[in-house]
Design goal:
Udp N-acetylglucosamine O-acyltransferase, Domain 2, 8-stranded parallel β-sheet, 257 residues, 27 strands, UDP N-Acetylglucosamine Acyltransferase, domain 1, alpha/beta, 11-stranded mixed β-sheet
């Protein structure tokens, strides 16, 4: 049974599963799907086109699934998809997709802290953490298990690799490869994300291999293409090493230095 505060306004065409709680003065429009066990706080606005997975928590004042802030947007039908067990804290603003991708996606078991902005056509993988007031431009891709520190703006079309960690208050103008720490102004490579990787079960041997690969990329004096060639010639191409190579090969904005 849904537990809905009497002041909440819910369109009759919204699809709300069992055991959902909806707080005071929240508004849920038509063409919204909310999975079972979700907790919707007070003063939350959920726009048409939003799809929310099971057991999500959305806190006070969040604005979810509104139109993309893109002057090219012409009213086309688009969606925002949120995976199960994701937490969205106070006053986050999450936009739907535009004609470019038709959807914005936030994965499962993510944690978006207060005042985070996720713009149109962003793709956020599972287990991503965005600290307070991370502000993303459109078309950003963040791979699983990445973490971004607070007060960080992320340029449009930037990609952030899996298991990476970006320090707070830093502008992200270029792609951040997987498994690393990024810090400084301008943003640059600051080592392997050793603590995060260890907590997730990466062996010391694998972490050493990752460190060796990035030493070739950032510390050898080779340019990026030469470093990738050297990695292919001298290292075992494990899944993780292939992740690094593929990330660099697919980078359109170029990786941080």
């Amino acid at each position: 049974m849904t537990n809905t505060h009497p002041t909440a306004i819910i369109d009759s065409e919204a699809q709300i599963d069992d055991d959902v709680s909806i707080g005071p003065y929240s508004v849920i429009q038509s063409d919204v799907i909310i999975g079972r066990g979700c907790q919707i706080g007070s003063d939350v606005f959920i726009h048409s086109g939003t799809r929310i997975g099971n057991n999500c928590r959305i806190f006070k004042g969040a604005v979810v699934g509104t139109d993309p802030q893109d002057i090219k947007y012409a009213g086309e039908k688009t969606t925002l998809e949120i995976g199960e067990e994701t937490t969205i804290r106070e006053f986050c603003t999450l936009n739907r997709g535009s004609a470019h991708r038709l959807k914005t996606v936030i994965g499962a078991k993510c944690f978006l802290m207060a005042y985070v902005h996720v713009a149109h056509d962003c793709l956020i993988g599972d287990h991503v953490i965005l600290a307070n007031a991370v502000n993303m431009a459109g078309h950003v891709i963040i791979e699983p298990y990445a973490s971004v520190g607070g007060l960080t703006p992320i340029h449009q079309f930037v990609r952030i690799g899996k298991h990476s960690f970006i320090g707070g208050g830093l502008r992200v103008p270029k792609d951040v490869p997987p498994y690393i720490l990024a810090a400084g102004e301008p943003l640059k490579y600051a080592g392997i994300n050793h603590i995060g990787l260890s907590r997730r079960g990466f062996s010391p041997e694998l972490i050493m291999q990752l460190r060796r690969a990035y030493k070739l990329i950032y510390k050898s004096g080779l340019n990026t293409s030469q470093a990738v060639t050297r990695i292919k010639e001298t290292m075992e191409l494990t899944t993780e090493i292939k992740d690094i190579i593929d990330f660099i090969n697919l980078s359109e904005r170029g990786i941080i230095k």
